[in-house]
Structures are given as C-alpha cells and as structure tokens.
Amino acid sequence: MFSHGSESLIKQAREIQESELQKFYSRLVKLLQAKEHSHETVDSLQRLHLILSATKYARTLPPELHKRVLSLLSSPSEQLQVLGSAVLRETLPLSGQELNYNQENVSQLNSHAAALLLSQARSTADLSSLCAQLLRGLESRQSDGSAHPLTHTLPVLNTVLTHRPECLTEDHVTLLSKKLVDWLRYASITQGGCASSGGFFTGPRSRQPVPTAELDGTVSGDFFTVLCVGQSFTDDQWMNVYSFSMLRHWLLTYHSVSNGNATADTANRLQLSLSLSHSHSFSNDDRSEVDGSVVSMVSATSSSSRLLPPKERLREKAFQYCQRLIEQSDRKAHKKADADLQKACLVEAVCILDCVCVEDASLVFRTFPCIKALFGEMAAVDCECVWRLVFARFPSELFNDQFLAHELLRFLQLNLESLQLRVPQYIRSFPNLLKLLAWDSPALMDDFVDLLPSLVTAGTAVELLHTLLDLPCLSATLVLQHRSASLPIAESSARGLLSLDAFRSPSFRGLFLFLLRGEAGSGDTIDRLNTLHELLAEAADWPRVVQCSQSVPVLLHIFFNTVITIADEKLFAHLILVMLERSSLLLNIPKYITETHRVFSCHLLKFCKLHPSLVVDQSHELLEFAGATANVYSKEEIYTHVVWVLGEYLSVSCDSRCSVKLITSCFEALEAVLFEITSSAPPPGAVCPAPRVVTTLMSALAKLASRSHDLIPRVSLFLSKLRTVTRGGSVAWCSDEDDLVAIVTRGEELWSLLKSPGVAQSVLTPPQHVMTPRWHRDTNVATPLQLRALTNLTQSQ
C-alpha cells in the first residue's frame, strides 16, 4: 500500500477542481514557452502526470499545452523526453491531430517518441503506415550528422514485429532485408574517430583512418562484426550491431508477412528458437579449431549471393556473419567482459544458423564443419545413442532430479511435432517418462496434461491405460527403489517395511521390474496384480503415492478423450474389457478407486453411445459383470452404468444381431441380481445397495421386457410383489424411508407402463427419429409452419 503522504497526494490529484486545473494548465504553458526549462517545469510536469494517471478517465489537454508537451519529445534532455512521453500516454490525442511522424520530422524520433507512437496506434492500418514511414527513412541516405534516428527505428520495427507482424507488407520485408544485408556485411572496417599518430605538428591532414581490431588485439582481417573493437564506431557500424541484435527475431517473424495467417506458427518457432539460447553452453576447452578458413568460404560465396532474392540473400549473409562470429570466438580475449561477449555471441550465432538451416536445407552441409568444430564428436554422433540417453537413462536413473525433469519435459513440449514424426523412441518411452510424474506429480501434472495426447496411439492405447492405472504402484516402487539404494540391508531401519523386503526378494522381483520397465512393448500388464497390490498395501497412505493417485483420474479423462479420436470398434471393445477387469484390480486407496470408477463409467457411456453395437459384441463380458451380485456393493458407480448400457442398447434398433435369446439371457441375469438384493440384507460389512442401483435394474428389466413381450408378466409380478412387501414398513435392504418411497414410486410407474405393451415400447425404447428430432427443419410437418406463424404475429406486434 501507499504511504500516508503518497495517498494524500493521489487524493488531491483526483479531487482537483476543473477551474484550478485550467489555471495549472495555463501556468505550465508559460513555463514550457521559456527557452530554458527550470526545476519548476520538471516539478509541474510530474504533477501533471500524477493528475492524469490518478484517475481512470482519460483527459484531453488544451491544444497549446498538448503541442508544447509534444515538442518535449525532441528535447535534448532525456528527463523531459520521458516526462513528455509519459504525460501524452495518459491523454487522448487531439481530434484530427493524432501523433504522426512523417518524412520531415522522422529525424526527431527517439525511443520515448516511439513508445508513444506505438501506444496511440489505433489499428493495424495505423501501424502499417508507421512502418512505411520508418522504412522510407531507412531507405533515404543519412545526413552527415549522427545516425540517431536510425538507431531507434530498428527497435520500433522490432516491437511491431513482436506484437503485430501482419502490419508489414511484402515490400516492407524486401526493403528491410536489403538494408540488413548492407549493415551486416558491408559496414566500414575503420574506426569512427580520426586517429592520430601523435607528435607536435599533428593536424587534420596527418590523421589516418585506423582499422578495427579483433578481441585478441590483431587487426581485423575481414568484414566488421559485433566482436570487432575500436576507440569509436561509425554510424553504419552501430547499425551493424543493431541489425545483429534483431536478426534472429526477423528471420523467425517475416514468414507471417508472407503467409498471412501464420502468426501462431511464428510464435511457436520463436519460442523454440529462443529456448536454445538458454539451453546451450559452451567452453573454450571443449572446442577444437575450425577446420579450414571461414574467411575464404565467405569470400567465395559473396559474389554469387548478389544474384539472390532479398530473403535468400539475407539468409546467405546471416550465414556468413555467423561463421565469422564463430571464427572470432576462438580468439583469446584480453578482458573478461569481452570473453563473456564472445560466449553470448556464439550462442546467438548458433541459434541464427539453426534458423537459416530450417529455411534452407542446403545450408546444413555448409554449417556442419563449424558446428562439428564447436561440439567436437557430438555433432557426428548417432542419434540413436542420444535418444537412448534422453528417453532411457535420464528418466530411469534421474527421476528424482526436479530440474532435469522440468527441462526434459519442456524440451519435449517445444519439439513435440518433430518427435512424433521423426523419433519412434518417443512413443515407446512412456513407461520411463511416467516415472517423472510418479515421483513428483504436483509439479509436473500440467506438463503431462499437454504431453499425454501425443503418447496415445492405436498400438499403445491398451498398455498406456494399464500403465496409468498402475501409476500409484509405480510411485510406491520408485520410493522403494530409492530407499533400497540409500539404506543398506544390514541397517535395522531398512527392515521396518514389508514392501521393501518384498522389493528385495527374488520371488517378487519380476513384478517390480515390469513396473520399472523402460520401454513399451513387453506386455500390456502382469498376471499377479492382486499379489502386487498386497505387497504394496502399506504404501497406500504414503504422501507421494497419494498425490500420484490424485493425478490419475485427470489423466484418464485426457486419455479416453484422445482415444475417441483415433480408435476403431476393435480397440473400443478391448478398452471396455480392460475397464471391467481393472475395476477390481486397483491399489487400495478408497478415493482413488471411487474416482477411477467414475471415470470408467463416464467413458463407457461415451463409447457405447458412439458405437451401440459394442454392447452386442461384448454382451458376454457385460452380462458376466452385471450378473455378479458382489459388484452391486463394491462397484456401485460402474455397475449402475453397465446395467443402464445393457438396458438401453441391447435392442434390434441398435444392432440387428440382437436376438430374443440374448435379450432373455440378459433379463434373467439382471432379474436374479435384483431379486437377490431386494430379498435379503446386505452381506456383513457392506452397506445397503444404493437406490440408484435398484431403480436402474428395474428400468433395465422393463426396457428388455418391452422388446420381448413374453417377459412382461415376470417384471409385472416382481413389481407388484415389491409394492406389497414395502407396505409392511421398513425392509432390510433399504435403510432410508425416503429412498424406499422413491424406489416404490419408480416401480409403480414402470408397472403402469407395462400394462400397455405398445405404449411401453414407445416410451422405454423410442425410435431414433424421436430421440433426435428435426422438427424445426422438416418442412413436411406442421411445427415449422406454426413457428413461422407465431414469429409473424410477435414481429407484427
């Protein structure tokens, strides 16, 4: 918060009266009319800025004051430039007098005026016009004075490129590319000031131009670069430095000008390239001398490059410039600051070479020798070895290194498209990559939310699903592995965990080795999952394991949503079997089991709605699951949805293979379960069946009976008995009176429907055209006509 004095000043600025404000404006105009600006002028400008910024309403200055403040932007005092720019950014431009720099006053442009120009641009057209004016200033020959306006032109253009690259036209790109070529390659090689050899009779005629030097003190043997030094620099040498500073950004961004709608792609390319400058580090000890002469290579190509189009010529000159920088980086600098500058320029040069090689593959062969010299044998190493290191050793051996995990996942995200297309090891490495998540779920969850869809393919889906479900077990196993390595067997503290003993036991080694596998393809899952869960039972309340289990439901949702976009019916059928099987094979963490069953239920409905024939294909497994009474008490969520799916989609209208025999067998299985749970108390240790389970079973039986009328009497008999039994008061299988009333009410509704089989079939199994009506589009029905009539009536009113 502000101090008491600051709050008092802000309050005064907000509550200033209009009459007092006008007097203050008049006094400030008189101060600005003076030839010399005193401290009172500075104080008044600061007060004006406070008055304008203290309120959320933008004010308009009087025309005379606005003109005077605008003139401060070209003041020799930078303090006045800053104050003038700050004041004008808090005001509205005068009507018809928006800030505009044309060819005559472009010489007044500085960074503060540029900031104001950009802040007051109202549209893309304004920015495009500004760029055109700035570029025309570049095109015209500089005066004999300093290059002050040009040094601020490039930062302004760079800012426009960052935020609105589409403001530049193809002509702008061509012009700026040409100018960058001139500044990068053809800057003068002599120092800016007139050097003297000394002596008593030193005069203008005796002063000779002195060439620039390298960082090791030798005379520069080739064209000027940012690593050349001297007592002073010429204007075009300064432009050389400015051009190099924005070169990579320009190479990454000018594509959006040509392609129009490639801004998002440009942003991704820019982010990827910028990340390289933080991930490369170099050491003079690790580099060998550059083979061959860089200078000779540059000279050999300079003449032919003049025939290239502007963009291609800029790439060629950028390539030559970077090669020269790499050669200069091998020189021994005399100052530590110069050595640091060498390293920074070397990183930037490698990043620029990466950009130009992406654009022109022919440059890769010319770039390879100098890159090989920088990195030694690493430049020619087999990619298989590198990927084996990245996807195998790093995650499996250093899964507990948080910095490595963050950098590795960031690298994968930035290069995801290339990895999917060109690196098959990436898809197969998900068992290893998930170790990072299993060890540190809260910190890495966001990264895996982005990466998981790229790991889902038709070939990996089943094994990946098993691996996600086993993630808490993997987390516990990594903890055991870490403890086993840090605690010798002889120590008493290492003997307190039964799971640690099991981890070290040869009898169970295979179970843990499967969880710790480094690559997919050795099998979807293991047979003795129950045994594994018993061995890891004490790990169910370990904080790391609990945190890991909380991330699984989110990842499962992402997994299933991705599967829907790539899977065929065969894969859907396999995944349904996995869901039914694994619903009872999960590490015993109650909340984790409940949430996983909820995810299974949600996506089981999506699968069957997308492909109703799956219910007939998997009817045997679904009936086996629904016919097990124990599932009513232990898997309420998924059991309810399996029963609903059977009742909803086991119909001839969904699949012509659905026979009366199949409907009858399903009916009998569900009837037996419903009879059993409503005729006796729940087993010891179990709660009463949920009302939703009972009503879903009743509805499913009614739906099946409406499709095979021979079954209607059996349903009606059960429903009538249910009503009779509940009249006597409470029952053993339902402890809540309100729940019992709801169950009986649903039974009476179904019983009433089944009295009229035709009506029951229409209500319980409606035709497809009723479920997906198109009355608002179908001109053969009366509804559109009625709607049009009502519309005409309401509009006329």
Descriptive keywords:
elongated, 797 residues, single chain, 66% helix, mainly alpha
Helix coverage percent of residues? 55-70%
Structural category: mainly alpha
Residue stretches low in confidence (pLDDT < 50, at least 5 long) are: 101-107, 141-148, 195-202, 258-303
**How many H/I helical runs?**
41
| Rg from alpha-carbon coordinates | 39 Å
How much of the sequence lies in strands comes to under 5%
Tell me the number of strands. Answer: 0
- Apparent shape: elongated
How far apart are the termini?
57 Å
Mean of all residue-level pLDDT scores: 81
Largest sheet properties:
none
Could you outline the blueprint of secondary structure elements for this entry?
Elements: H1 4-14, H2 18-33, H3 39-53, H4 63-71, H5 78-89, H6 111-119, H7 124-139, H8 148-163, H9 170-185, H10 235-253, H11 255-259, H12 263-279, H13 294-305, H14 310-329, H15 336-359, H16 362-375, H17 383-397, H18 402-414, H19 416-422, H20 424-428, H21 430-439, H22 441-455, H23 461-469, H24 471-486, H25 498-504, H26 509-515, H27 529-535, H28 543-566, H29 569-582, H30 590-610, H31 613-617, H32 619-626, H33 630-634, H34 636-649, H35 660-677, H36 691-707, H37 712-726, H38 737-754, H39 757-764, H40 768-771, H41 783-796
Helix pairs in contact: 1-3, 2-4, 3-5, 4-5, 5-6, 6-8, 7-8, 7-9, 8-10, 9-10, 9-14, 10-15, 12-15, 13-14, 14-15, 15-16, 17-21, 18-22, 21-22, 21-24, 22-28, 23-28, 23-29, 24-25, 24-28, 28-30, 30-34, 32-34, 32-35, 34-36, 35-36, 36-38, 36-39, 37-38
Protein name: AP-5 complex subunit zeta-1
Organism: Collichthys lucidus (Big head croaker)
InterPro entries: AP5Z1 (IPR028222), AP5Z1_ARM (IPR055450), TPR_AP5Z1_C (IPR056856), TPR_AP5Z1_N (IPR056857)
